[in-house]
Fold:
Amino acid sequence: MSTRPESCRRTEDYCLPLFFLTLSVGVGVITAQLPWGEGDLTGILIFAVILVYLWGAHLFPAPWRSDRSLWLVSRNIILLAFLLRATVAIFHRLYPILPELYTLDAETYDWEGWAIADAWLTGNNQKAEFISLSAAIHEHFIAVVYFLIGHSVLSIKILSSFVGTLSIYYLFLFAVETVGKKRALLVTFLVTVWPSHVLWTSHNFRDPWVFYFLSRVIYSSLLWLKYDSQKEWLKTALFIVLTGLFRELTGLLLALTFVTVSVYEYSRKATGLLRVSVLFLSAIGAVGFFLIMKDVLFFSHIQDASPLALSQIRQNLAIGGSTSYPDITYNSWFDILFFAPSGIVYFLFAPFPWQITNAVQLASSIENFALYFLTALACFRFSFLCALVRKEILFVGLFLVCGVVASGVVEGNVGTAYRHKMQFLPYLLVLLSPAWPLFSRVKPQVLEAKSLSG
Structure:
């Protein structure tokens, strides 16, 4: 079993983020009791508390502070991440600039959350119809906050910005362990200023929570595989459940990835009949898990994973929004294999310049040019990526491949794809970064050794 370096031993600190999240809401509760402390002012004070916390840089493990330049740069990037998201949240609260189509979900969550909180406050019965388990959980979280501090839309936006910032922090930790400190700083900065990530983590969507718990899953899985840590294995399983509570399909994909990697890891250490038994029982468990989970998903009426059923999922997702290939129907698995490459390209790189119809699509198209360039670099310098082929990235690699392929096949709503792509993009950038010729012309193995040594 490998020994974890001192720089990683204090990174899984649950207490400080949870404490300051609770403290922020506590400040909101006190402010809400003041005659002038209602609505947006509560959100501004919560913003100030979180800003002071991040400025103190208590997120970062003590050993890293000996490297003052790294500590200051990384602290400032995380601080910038929160400031950008909170600024967008405040500005949009004062001067709404996004088309209603892109904020409809957030407004629905807010309205339903306030209705639930109001029912609790007045003693009335609130019979809300939730489209999914994850929507119900998110709306009840909003209801709890509104029950404590009153109806303050800005407060929820600021809390979402904070949670989105925490996801970038754990992305940074994952990148340090994977590609070294310098490239970790570069990738973290790119995600910090990536317009789509800023947008979706500064509003009252489920996405900030999905991104945060997903970042914990990915980071814990890396530590589990790299250091053979059973504690990190358990934490990976825990955060998969929490991710699934905020987006069922992502949780299901993570769970299947987790089962597959766990079986592979255990079977490597087992022998003979034990290995066969583990593989058989795990396969039965994965099938049973799918059969149980499909009944709590949004598509509970889907009875199988046939091509026609996948077509139905794609058509259901496309309802209420624009779609790529709206009339496509999968009649066989060959149809899916034939369409998958095109679907993946659309999922990762749409909208294309000729598809732009509004400002959001224009911004997304511009940022896609950066993605084209970074992906092209990786293709031309593919040999540099071979240095990353090692056990600890097995989980994130399998998750990215399965997630992108599945999304390309079934994601029919272009607007929803903008948000869902942000689940995968940060980690894709991490894995592509060794091919970017920004630091050295030496061989990938030498570059990796230099990066990890700081």
